[in-house]
Amino acid sequence: MIAAAEPVIPDFGRGSSCVRENGTFCWEWVRDHWGDTLRPALVQHLLLTLIAVAIGFALAFALALAAHRRGRLTTPVVLVTGLLYTIPSLALFQLLVPFTGLSRTTAEVALVSYTLLILFRNTLAGLAGVPEEVRDAARGMGLTRRQLLWSVELPLALPAIVAGLRIATVTVISLATVAVFVVNEGLGAPIYAGLQQTFKTELIAAGALCVALALAADALLVLVQRALTPWTRVARSR
Amino acid sequence: MNSENTAQTEGSHGYPRAATLELRHVRKLYAGAARPAIEDLSLTVPAGEICVLVGPSGCGKTTAMRLVNRMIELTDGEILLDGASVLERRPAELRREIGYVIQQIGLFPHQTIADNVATVPRLLGWDKGRVAARVRELLELVQLPPELAERYPAQLSGGQRQRVGVARALAADPPLLLMDEPFGAIDPIARHRLQDELLQLQARVRKTIVFVTHDIDEAIKLGDHIAILREGGVLAQYAPPDELLAAPADEFVASFVGRDRALKRLALSRVGDLTLLPANGAAHGATIDPDTSLRDALSLLIADGDRPLAVRDGDGRVAGLVSLELIRAALHPDPAR
Fold this sequence. Notes:
heterodimer, B: 13 strands, 34% helix
C-alpha cells in the first residue's frame, strides 16, 4: 500500500518556507490550493449531502405518512431501515459496487440508506406526538383527514422532523468522506490524499472543512426551524 | 326557561337560527363490547335551548353527544337536525355546521388565537375580510381583549383558552353547539364565571346547545332541560331543572340530584318572583333586595330568629315581606306557578 502510493513531493523550489519544511499546518498551502482542490471538494461534498438527505427525506417521509395511517407498517420499516443503518459504511459501499459500479450513484445509495431510520422514526414520532385533543377538535370542526395532516399534524411534527434532519445531515456529511472509496469526490478526496503523504495540511484542512460544513448545516437547520415554528418560543404565561 | 320558538335574531350580530335536535331510538354498540353504551335513547332538544346531559361516568352521555356530529357512528336509530338526518351528510361538512367544544379545548398550539377562531370560516371558504371581521366580533363576544388575537394558545390562561374554544365553535354561526364538559378542568371560581358568561352569551346568540357534564349543579344552573342518564344511556328523566328537583322520577334521579334538592330548587327562584306579604309598617328583620335567591333568603330567615325579611326595591322602598311560610309555599305551589 505504502509502497504503491505515489508520494506527493512538495514543490521545494517555490513553496513557502512552511511547506518546504513540512510544517504541521500551512495557511499558504490552503490559500494556494483553495481554488483547485479544497473548494471543488467542498462543493462536491455539499452536493453529495444535499442529494442524499433530499432523497432520504422523501422516502422516509412517504414511509412515515403511510405508517402513520397504518400502524402495522411501522415495525417492518423500522426493521429494514434499522438493518441498513447497522451495515458498516465501508462494507456497504463495497457491497454496492457490483450493482452500481464505482459511481456517484453507489455513494448516494449508501448515504441515503443511512438517513432512512432517523428520518422515518423522527417524522413518525412527531406525528404521533400531536395531542389527541387537538386531533379530536380538528376532526370535530370538520377538517378532512388530509387537512388534519397538512395543516395540523405536520406543522406540529415539525420540531421532531427538523431534529431528525439535523442528525441525518450531520451523519451524512461525516459519512460522505468514506464515499471516496467508490467515487473520487467530496472532501474525502483531499483527506484520502492527505493520508497518503507526510505533509498533513491537506488532511487537516479538508477535515476541518468537513466539521465546519456539518456545524454550518446544523446551524442553518436550527434557524429554519425557528423561523417555521414561532409558537415553540413564546413565553408560557401559565 | 325559553319556549321552543325557532329563536330569531336580536341585535346587530345577526345570528340567524338555532336547530331542533332529535334523537330517535338511538343505539350504540361499540365493537367488541358486551353491552351497548346506549341502549335506546330518544330525546328532542327544542331550538334555542340548552339541554344538559348529565349522569355518572359510563352512562353514555359523551357518546350520545358525539353521535350527533358523527365523531362516533351510531349502530341504530336516527338523529335529525331540523328534521334532516345527519347520516345523509358527509361527516366533515356536517361538523362544520355544528360547534364543538371539548374539555381539553384542543386549540391548535401552532396557530394564533385569530387563526384558531378562523378555522371553520376558512374551511367554508370565507374571504379574508369577512374572516377578520368575524374574528374581531367573536373575541368581543366572548369578552377577550383584541390584542390576544396575535398570541398563541400557550400564552393564555386556562379560562381565556376556554373562551377561545367557545369563540372558535361559534365562528361559522352554527345552529347547534356541542359542549363536552367544557369547564371541567377549570378552577371553581373561573368555572362559575364561565358558566355565567355562557348564559349571557346564550341570551344573545340563542343557539341549541347540548352540554355534557357530570356536575348536577352545573346542569341545574345552565340547563333549560336536563336529561339524566343512567348506565346504558337510559334516560332516567328529562325535564326542566325545577321539575327535576320538585319531582324526581325515581330513586336514581333523587339520589343523583341530592338530598338538598329542595334547597337547590329554592336557589333557582328570586325573592322578587314571589307575591310578597304586605309590609304595613310591621316589624321585620334584615333587609334584602329582590334579586336575592329564595335559598339565601331562607338562610337569612333561619339565622335571624324567624322574623320576616323586608324586601327593598330599587327606589329603596320596602316592597313587602318574606316569611318562612311564604318560602315553604313556594316549594309547593297549589296548581302551578
